[in-house]
Design goal:
eleven-stranded mixed β-sheet, binds magnesium ion, globular, binds threonylcarbamoyladenylate, 15 strands, alpha/beta, DHBP synthase, four-stranded parallel β-sheet, Rossmann fold, about 325 residues
């Protein structure tokens, strides 16, 4: 079993030495747990793809702890980027910028750009500082599966390939970072996440949406099936009663309910409520943990309640839609 260790000074030292030796360390961030490797070491990066069974066309996010580290990995001549970093870093915002030669092709899938972010978690920051190099880290889950928001989620989804897991408790934000590309004239939202689009637009003006092209996703967050539970999951239509979502032939199924605020009338073998008070932040923070729990209940079908797509609701709905698609349900 992969060791799960508290983030003591000694364990952080051990973890940074493992990273320096080219091995993988899972660590907490404010969004989800990451699977980290030395971003400047191609052999270490290759281990990430191997452990996650991640396709090589899917580039990684490079994590830094100081703004000064940026100069070695990306070209900084974008006033919008500086403004966004001033406001949202450290925090759940990833920026896609022109890269330098120092960044291996494996980190960017050969793209001329690199995705960078400064996480707002003391354990992540301490680890990166101690390592002394930028740390590439995707979410610490097998490719396409549910993202991890606790150390146990990571431990339960991997049996090898990771040197250790640093336990930093539950992730506060619970959905991945927002990814914004500043590679072209107009900023483009590649993935909705912990910083709502509205907040970006208030600071830098209109933000375009990436045309969803499943043939050539520029962020696999855009792949239609991602973040998927093993159990089939169906996202209800807004305002539609759950009974309507269940076909006559499905009435005998063991049903699970993933609600935003409450539980409708009906027979459910398991129920999870994201936020009884209707707080989108709480809902985002609990989203993946609720899905992991439902997925462990041997249900036949999970029904998920939709919510308004504003603020964090956009990131939550994106994850629910993709989870449903990835579970084999057609939209
Ligand atoms: O919150 C997060 O961002 C978490 C934590 C661990 O920091 N990380 C995360 O990584 O979600 P991952 O690998 O699951 O998602 C990375 C996304 C991918 O969809 C990838 O395609 C996109 O970032 N990406 C990375 N580099 C890119 C680039 N140069 N251009 C466009 N998209 C890029
Ligand atoms: Mg991921």
């Amino acid at each position: 079993m992969i060791p799960v260790l508290p983030p003591s000074e000694e364990n952080l030292r051990f973890a940074s030495a493992e990273l320096a030796a080219g091995r993988l360390v899972s660590f907490p961030t404010e969004t989800v747990y990451g699977l980290g490797a030395n971003a400047l070491d191609p052999a270490a990066l290759a281990r990430i793809f191997e452990a996650k069974r991640r396709p090589f066309f899917d580039p990684l996010i490079v994590h830094i702890a100081e703004r000064d580290s940026l100069d070695s990995i990306c070209v900084r001549r974008d006033a919008r980027a500086e403004k966004l970093m001033d406001r949202f870093w450290p925090g759940p915002l990833t920026l896609v910028l022109a890269k330098t030669e120092a960044v291996p092709d494996l980190a960017t899938s050969g793209l001329p750009t690199v995705a960078v972010r400064m996480p707002a978690h003391p354990v992540a920051l301490a680890l990166i500082r101690m390592a002394g190099f930028p740390v590439a880290a995707p979410s610490a889950n097998p490719f396409g599966r549910l993202s991890p928001t606790t150390a146990a989620h990571v431990r339960d989804q991997f049996s090898e390939g990771i040197a250790l897991i640093l336990d930093g408790g539950d992730c506060r934000v619970g959905v991945e970072s927002t990814i914004l590309s500043l590679a072209g004239e107009t900023p483009v939202l590649l993935r909705s996440g912990g910083i709502p689009r509205e907040q970006l637009e208030a600071l830098i003006g209109p933000v375009g949406l990436a045309g969803a092209n499943p043939e050539k996703p520029s962020a696999p967050g855009q792949l239609p099936g991602h973040y998927a539970p093993r159990t089939r999951m169906r996202l209800l239509r807004a305002g539609a009663p759950p009974a309507q979502a269940v076909a006559p032939g499905e009435t005998g199924l063991r049903l699970g309910w993933l609600g935003f605020r409450g539980v409708p009338a009906g027979r459910f073998a398991a129920v999870e409520i994201l936020s009884p008070s209707g707080d989108p932040r709480e809902a985002a923070a609990r989203l993946f943990a609720c899905l992991h729990r439902l997925d462990a209940q041997s249900l036949d079908l999970i029904l998920a309640e939709p919510m308004a797509e504003e603020g964090l609701g956009a990131a939550i709905m994106d994850r629910l839609r993709k989870a449903a698609a990835g579970s084999g349900e057609s939209p």
